């Protein structure tokens, strides 16, 4: 198996790699030494807890490809602040300029390449969805209360791109675990007034806030005309009223893919869902015309659990 390569990892806030052999860390040119030092520190910290794993020498600057060798199977959990967090300090201009700069950076460094995704992310200002006092444009998840987070911009961009072909004008989209409403708003912009974008979250207070967020955004008219709807409910049951869906996104990690969501996916449709507990994979579930499903893993991820309301509020 070739060694995993973390490329352009400036946009990665939490990245899990299961590796045996070597890990190649290929920094993008935009990464500054501080960011790499943070990564090294995590890598060293983890590596030192693994018997016989050799921690790489840590230098303050690391402009080129680094290869770290581990003599046994290890699981690496790399976390770090994003370069965007630091870059943001140097950005000037208004909110929309900063939002555009964030989107440009995600695209420039290869997180996504779709013009349609860039357009919708530029139109939906992330700052309207991130609680006040947070760095709205940093590439990191942010707490939104109730043991939930708004996902990092690179995850939003990744999911939008995976679902792009299933979010054409007139199509139906379901966003389970809609949280702040950010992605539901993006979906609504893509499917347009003749389509449907339905967000479901089981915390009624988050649903209320998400409605207020959307009302301030470029998707406000879609909320008003009903093509964008945000509901309180257990998203594991989907939202049968507007099924079948061309696109289903799940914003919380499920122990397994909920059957009602498979049933509510249209033949020819696609679901993107994180599956797992400690180690999670972002699964891409395609429903074939005969009703069978094909599942593949896109990447390793870290999401809050898709669970009961009580379990979430208890924090387990
Ligand atoms: N995608 C959203 C939120 C991600 S956090 C955003 O980026 O803003 C995951 C969300 O899933 C939380 O808001 C949490 O309340 C919700 N959630 C978890 N389990 C759920 C369930 N069973 N039904 C509905 N929502 C759920």
TrEMBL record:
E.C. no: 2.1.1.77
Cellular component, GO annotation: cytoplasm
Transmembrane segments: none
InterPro entries in UniProt: PCMT (IPR000682), SAM-dependent_MTases_sf (IPR029063)
Pfam (any one): PCMT
Single GO MF annotation: protein-L-isoaspartate (D-aspartate) O-methyltransferase activity
Domain of life: Eukaryota
Nuclease listed as a keyword: no
Catalyzed reaction equations: [protein]-L-isoaspartate + S-adenosyl-L-methionine = [protein]-L-isoaspartate alpha-methyl ester + S-adenosyl-L-homocysteine
Family: Belongs to the methyltransferase superfamily. L-isoaspartyl/D-aspartyl protein methyltransferase family.
Name used for this protein in its record: Protein-L-isoaspartate O-methyltransferase
């Amino acid at each position: 198996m070739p060694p995993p390569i973390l490329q352009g990892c400036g946009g990665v806030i939490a990245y899990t790699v299961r590796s045996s052999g070597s890990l190649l860390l290929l920094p993008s040119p935009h990464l500054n030494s501080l960011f790499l030092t943070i990564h090294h520190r995590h890598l060293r910290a983890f590596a030192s807890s693994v018997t016989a794993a050799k921690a790489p020498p840590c230098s303050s600057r690391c402009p080129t490809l680094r290869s770290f060798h581990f003599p046994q199977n290890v699981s690496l959990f790399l976390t770090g602040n994003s370069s965007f967090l630091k870059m943001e300090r140097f950005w000037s201009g208004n909110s929309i300029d900063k939002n555009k700069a964030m989107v440009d950076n995600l695209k420039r460094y290869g997180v996504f390449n779709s013009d349609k995704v860039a357009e919708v992310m530029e139109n939906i200002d992330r700052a309207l969805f991130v609680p006040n006092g947070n760095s709205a444009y940093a590439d990191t998840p942010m707490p939104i209360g109730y043991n939930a987070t708004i996902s990092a911009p690179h995850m939003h961009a990744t999911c939008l791109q995976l679902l792009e072909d299933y979010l054409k004008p007139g199509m139906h989209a379901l966003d389970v675990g809609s949280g702040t409403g950010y992605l539901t708003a993006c979906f609504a912009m893509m499917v347009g007034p003749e389509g449907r974008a339905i967000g479901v979250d089981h915390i009624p207070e988050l649903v209320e806030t998400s409605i207020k967020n959307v009302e301030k955004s470029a998707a406000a008219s879609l909320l008003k005309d009903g093509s964008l709807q945000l509901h309180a409910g257990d998203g594991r049951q989907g939202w049968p009223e507007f099924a079948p869906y061309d696109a289903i996104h799940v914003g919380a990690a499920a122990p397994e893919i909920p059957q009602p969501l498979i049933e509510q996916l249209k033949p020819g449709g696609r679901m993107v869902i994180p599956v797992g507990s400690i180690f999670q994979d972002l699964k891409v579930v395609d429903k074939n015309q005969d009703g069978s499903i094909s599942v593949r893993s896109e990447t390793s991820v870290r999401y809050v659990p898709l669970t009961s309301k009580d379990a979430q509020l208890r924090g387990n």
